[in-house]
């Protein structure tokens, strides 16, 4: 093992893990406010395709990312409207959002499949993903607004009684989640694998969802979890290429197994408090009760 | 009023329906989207070719992105229930699902791609892609400077292992120092992961990337890193013009047209088809004249001719397995049975086939 090889591995890990960090941190903020949005994969795909289309049409990377984030806000806004105002079930609505996103992105991107583009260097986004985790962590634990957001996620009735607008805070949290998922998607289609292919996020949205649980709703642990997952994936590829016998299948399944273990652990109530799962997660808020 | 409309519509259906003489319905199950510019794309090109050949005597339908699990049963059954006469299931792991549905619909004809189990109403078909792998291996043996080849493999099925072996046998013949680095990614379709694997191999010194996955992400990664690559399933030159040496193209159209014609004529019978370059089912994309010396291109073309007329076979003995046992004696070629069930690496390849 020489230094170049190790630096190379590190680079690949950073590039591969960044989309998981974006999507994971976005979903974390949403869940911290007490809303579970299972539409991550769908929002990522719509974000990926809209960034790609805008880049092909205008040639501007800035516009591509701008419109992509806008698409994430629209998608998650739709979800927020359904679950916050029409009180639809969060799990069913989130799944529907994913299915909708898969279909919508395929439809929009049909004529852009196989259009060659110039990829953008990923390094700004890699740096930005670390920054955003730091900012979210700071926001949660060092600012009053962050405390309020967490309070809404823990007990929306208490927060409401204290005069905070539960609906508004949740709405904004969902929009933040949506924009981060769209950013993750656009990073994939513009930087990571510069192309548009139907369903090209290939399940990363679900891994991001799993990461939030695995991280027990702590921002810095989302980062750690994402890098454990990304690191293990790339490391096992390296071991394979070095000719060592290695059960690749096991590592494809590892993040899901870890999530199930964490879920089993937090299904006991006492532990759940310790592990900081938002107590009001998935519980709809009816004003005036 | 309603009665008149009903009468009119019934009349119209009969009047125009009969004009088309009851076209046969042909359905396809795709594992990916037709736009992958790889495996599914080429099946869709085949489907369109079939349509163009048979015109009004058939109509076609396809269901895309069907996972290789119980969902496939539902998808195949859906086609069967909706009156399709011929159904192509275009991935290896649709095997059990195809047979499960075929049992319930004895009058419907099924065609399972790359499978090896037939039934009265289930035929199998595949192409001898390994013939193309041999040519790629030969080219790689000449073109590599680091003597290291990076190979991105999908799932450890005979089809993929056969490709690796055919490639290595040809490459090591022209360049005995060649080393193969193989990464199994356990997916056919994940542009990000395919790019990661390509970058990992390049980082470990590979200067030629070979892929057995479905998107052009590896070729793109090779282009970016300034190394060579072979495309997969379709001509991928436009996505990586400075890396792309050639691709193995899957040409399904003539076979699809022939089988659909047989259903229209009522002459379809089950069977197993495994055609290669001689029947035009496997075709090499134009060799990259910017990157390859003319003499090497000529050698590759000569090899194509030899494979077509049967004087060259990628698995010509002596071939040893990793344990050093002779599996194909000198002067003989590997029988199809061995090729179809191939689950071992030949001598010289490091590592093991994942189980």
Explain what the structure shows.
The complex is a heterodimer of chains A (289) and B (355). Chain A is mainly α and 289 residues long. Chain A has one domain (3-274): ABC transporter involved in vitamin B12 uptake, BtuC, CATH 1.10.3470. Helix content of chain A is 75%, strand content 0%. Chain B has two domains: 22-127 and 252-275, Rossmann fold; 129-242 and 282-340, Rossmann fold. Helix content of chain B is 41%, strand content 19%. Chain B has a six-stranded parallel beta sheet with strand order 2-1-3-4-5-11, sandwiched between helices. In chain B, strands 7-6-8-9-10-12 form a six-stranded mixed beta sheet, sandwiched between helices. In chain B, strand 8, helix 8 (217-225) and strand 9 (228-233) form a beta-alpha-beta unit. Chain B is globular. The A-B interface holds A 5, 8-9, 11-12, 15-16, 19, 106, 110, 113-114, 116, 119, 188, 192-195, 197-204, 233-234, 237-238, 240-245, 247-249, 252 and B 32-33, 35-37, 64-65, 150, 181-187, 189-197, 199-201, 203-204, 206, 215-217, 220, 224, 238-239, 350-352, 354.
Detail the poorly predicted runs of chain B: 11-20
CATH class (first level) name of chain A: Mainly Alpha
* Main pleated sheet of chain A: none
Uncertain residue ranges of chain A: none
DSSP summary, beta strand count of chain B: 14
Give the termini separation of chain B: 68 Å
Percent of residues in beta strands of chain A: under 5%
Q: What letter string, H or E per element, gives the SSE order of chain B?
A: HEHEHEHEEHEHEHEHEEHEEHEEH
Helical content class of chain A: over 70%
Shape of chain B: globular
Shape of chain A: globular
> What structural class should be given to the helix and strand makeup of chain B?
alpha/beta
User: CATH fold name of chain A, please?
Assistant: ABC transporter involved in vitamin B12 uptake, BtuC
Largest sheet: number of strands, sense, barrel closure of chain B: 6 strands, parallel
CATH architecture of the largest domain in chain B: 3-Layer(aba) Sandwich
């Amino acid at each position: 093992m020489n230094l170049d090889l190790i630096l190379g591995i590190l680079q690949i890990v950073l590039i591969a893990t960044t989309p998981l960090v974006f999507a994971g941190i976005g979903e974390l903020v949403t869940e911290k406010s007490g809303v579970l949005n299972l539409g991550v994969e769908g929002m990522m795909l719509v974000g990926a395709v809209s960034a790609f289309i805008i880049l092909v049409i205008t040639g501007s990377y800035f516009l591509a990312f701008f419109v992509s984030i806008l698409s994430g806000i629209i998608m998650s806004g739709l979800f927020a409207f359904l679950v916050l105002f029409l009180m639809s079930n969060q799990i069913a609505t989130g799944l529907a959002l994913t299915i909708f996103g898969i279909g919508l992105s395929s439809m929009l991107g049909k004529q852009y499949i196989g259009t060659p583009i110039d990829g953008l260097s990923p390094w700004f986004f890699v740096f930005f993903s670390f920054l955003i985790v730091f900012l979210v962590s700071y926001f949660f634990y060092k600012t009053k607004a962050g405390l309020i957001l967490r309070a809404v996620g823990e007990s929306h009735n208490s927060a409401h009684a204290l005069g905070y607008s539960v609906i508004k805070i949740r709405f904004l949290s969902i929009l933040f989640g949506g924009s981060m998922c769209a950013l993750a998607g656009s990073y994939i289609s513009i930087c990571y694998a510069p192309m548009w292919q139907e369903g090209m996020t290939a399940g990363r949205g679900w891994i991001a969802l799993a990461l939030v649980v695995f991280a027990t709703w702590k921002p810095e642990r989302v980062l750690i979890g994402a890098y454990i997952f990304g690191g293990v994936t790339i490391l096992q590829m390296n071991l394979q290429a070095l000719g060592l016998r290695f059960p690749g299948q096991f590592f494809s399944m590892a993040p899901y197994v870890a999530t199930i273990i964490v879920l089993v652990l937090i299904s006991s109530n006492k532990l759940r408090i310790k592990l900081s799962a938002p107590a009001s997660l998935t519980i709809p808020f009816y004003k005036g009760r | 009023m309603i009665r008149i409309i009903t009468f009119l519509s019934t009349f119209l259906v009969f009047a125009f329906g009969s004009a088309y003489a009851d076209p046969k319905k042909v359905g396809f199950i795709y594992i990916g989207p037709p736009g992958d510019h790889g495996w599914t794309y080429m099946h869709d090109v085949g489907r369109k070719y079939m349509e163009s050949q048979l015109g009004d005597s058939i109509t076609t339908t396809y269901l895309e992105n069907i996972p290789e699990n119980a969902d496939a049963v539902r998808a195949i059954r859906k086609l069967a229930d909706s009156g399709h006469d011929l159904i192509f299931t275009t991935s290896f792991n649709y095997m059990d699902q195809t047979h499960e549905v075929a049992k319930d619909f004895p009058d419907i004809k099924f065609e399972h791609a790359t499978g090896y189990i037939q039934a009265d109403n289930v035929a199998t078909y595949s192409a001898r892609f390994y013939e193309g792998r041999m040519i790629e291996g030969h080219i790689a043996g000449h073109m590599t400077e680091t003597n290291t080849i990076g190979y991105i493999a999908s799932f450890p099925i005979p089809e993929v292992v056969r490709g690796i072996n055919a490639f290595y046998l040809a490459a090591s013949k022209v360049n005995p120092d060649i080393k193969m680095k193989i990464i199994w990614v356990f997916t056919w379709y994940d542009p990000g992961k395919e790019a990661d694997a390509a970058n990992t191999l390049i980082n470990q010194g590979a200067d030629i990337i070979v892929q057995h996955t479905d998107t052009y992400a590896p070729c793109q990664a090779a282009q970016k890193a300034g190394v060579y690559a072979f495309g997969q399933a379709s001509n991928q030159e436009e996505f990586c013009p400075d890396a792309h040496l050639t691709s193995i193209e899957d040409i399904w159209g003539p076979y699809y047209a022939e089988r659909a014609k047989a259903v229209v004529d009522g002459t379809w019978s089950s069977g197993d088809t495994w055609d290669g370059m001689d029947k035009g089912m496997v075709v090499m994309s134009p060799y990259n004249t910017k990157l390859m010396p003319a003499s090497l291109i000529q050698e590759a073309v000569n090899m194509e001719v030899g494979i077509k007329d049967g004087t060259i076979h990628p698995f010509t003995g002596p071939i040893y397995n990793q344990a050093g046992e002779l599996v194909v004696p000198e002067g003989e070629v590997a029988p199809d049975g061995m090729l179809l069930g191939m689950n071992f690496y030949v001598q010289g390849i490091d590592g093991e086939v994942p189980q």
